[in-house]
Amino acid sequence: MTTVLGVLGATGVTGSLLVQYGLEREHQVVGLARFPWKLPGDHLDAISSGKLRIVKGDARDEAALEEVVKSTDVIFEATGHNHNRPGTMREDIAKLLVKLMRKHGKKRLLYISAAFAHEEGLVVVPQRMRGMVAFMSDNKGADVLKAEEVYRAAGSWLEWTVIQPPRIVQKPLTEDLITKAGKFPQAQNGSFTITFADMALMMLDTAANGTFIHQDVYLNCPSKLSPGLKDIPKFADMMITNLGNALRRCKRRPSAP
Q1: Helices (H), the chain
Q2: CB contact at 8 A, 147 and 93
Q3: Among 33, 159, 168, 233, which is most buried by a count of CB atoms within 10 Å?
Q4: Are 72 and 88 in contact (CB under 8 A)?
Q5: Is pTM, for the whole model, over 0.85?
Q6: Between the CA atoms of 168, 188, 132 and 134, what dihedral angle is there, to the nearest 10 degrees?
Q7: Are 15 and 76 in contact (CB under 8 A)?
Q8: Whole-angstrom Cα distance, residue 248 to residue 239?
Q9: Which residue range or ranges hold the NAD(P)-binding domain (predicted)?
Q10: Which residue has the higher pLDDT, 235 or 59?
């Protein structure tokens, strides 16, 4: 039986891979995207054939989100981390998503969180780098964790799975992903990096197999994966953004009497 996949953030790195691999597996896909024109050209044929439908809008727009939820069997929440700025984007989406899924009798949800937002998630990071990674995760951490709480508190009817990736890079598929439910995995050979492609395939497999329901799934890869050239501007921008936010927080603190 063909499953209809709902992908929030369908033009993002993970979202576009979920769309691609979902179509390759003969699923129908309904994607939500703020900028549909960013879709890869090879997705246009799928739109023409009716296998892919794109709803234009923000995941915080109730009408747009409802159009996706009511049409699909499983939801992949892959909207990203609010560009490393403080805010409540993921939490707001979570509250609205739970409301709409309950309304339309939809149960299955896979949500991408961030392992490094959890203090215990830093165990996979070499000791000398933990301070930097924790600093980088500072702004997005509170939001993704609050969204997790919304899903966990929804009740047993919601069949959620929280995906906990470490650092993710745009590299070719390795098919060497380690998945572990229940606690954070220890790094193997010092690796704490996975690929977007491996994570997207793992999420599709999880949805298809009905595994990891009401569980966190922590991801790791024993392969040595260093950042590619595509990741360097993103990494630099993230560091600059976090440094700026940290400086602003320091300025807002009252001086000692």
Answers
A1: 13-24, 44-49, 62-69, 89-103, 130-136, 138-152, 196-209, 231-252
A2: yes
A3: 33
A4: no
A5: no
A6: 80
A7: yes
A8: 14
A9: 9-208
A10: 59
Q: pLDDT for 88-146, tens place per residue?
A: 999 999 999 999 999 999 999 999 998 777 656 555 555 555 555 554 544 456 788 89
- Kindly give the interhelix angle for 13-24 and 196-209, rounded to the nearest 10 degrees: 50
134 CB-near residues (< 8 Å, 6+ apart): 116, 122
Q: State the Cα–Cα distance between residues 158 and 93, nearest whole angstrom.
A: 15
* 239 three-class SS: helix
Q: What are phi and psi for residue 12, nearest 5 degrees?
A: -75, 175
CB count within 10 Å of CB 96 equals: 18
Single-letter amino acid, residue 226: S
Cα separation, 160 vs 74, whole angstroms: 10
- Among the listed residues 127, 107, 125, the one whose alpha carbon sits nearest the alpha carbon of residue 115: 125
Distance CA 67, CA 105 (A): 14
Q: What is the DSSP letter of 115?
A: G
Position 190, amino acid? G
Rounded Cα distance between 249 and 132, Å, is: 17
Domains defined for the chain, CATH in brackets: 4-250 (3.40.50.720)
